[in-house]
Write a structure and sequence with these properties.
By secondary structure, the chain is mainly α. It is 62% helix and 0% strand. The longest helix is centred in the C-terminal third of the chain and has 24 residues. The protein is elongated, with a radius of gyration of 17 Å.
Length: 74
């Protein structure tokens, strides 16, 4: 007989959005606060680009807020 339930229940999409949104907030945020000290070669940037990093953080905050609202609403 085939299982009728989803892997992580009915909340799989909000849980994935929460995970990816949180990663988009934390990862670029930490790179912006504390950039890598040792660069591999001359092509590596000293700091991440500010506009792109802030865009990623903003997108992650929107995803995280949507996921939390979906999970908490029912």
């Amino acid at each position: 007989m085939i299982a009728q339930t989803l892997f992580l229940g009915d909340n799989l999409l909000p849980l994935l959005a929460l995970a990816f949104g949180g990663a988009l907030v934390v990862g670029p945020g930490l790179a912006l606060i504390r950039p890598p000290e040792n660069r591999k070669d001359g092509n590596d940037l000293e700091r991440p680009p500010l506009i792109r990093t802030l865009a990623f953080i903003g997108l992650g905050m929107v995803m995280t807020a949507w996921a939390l609202a979906s999970l908490l609403s029912g």
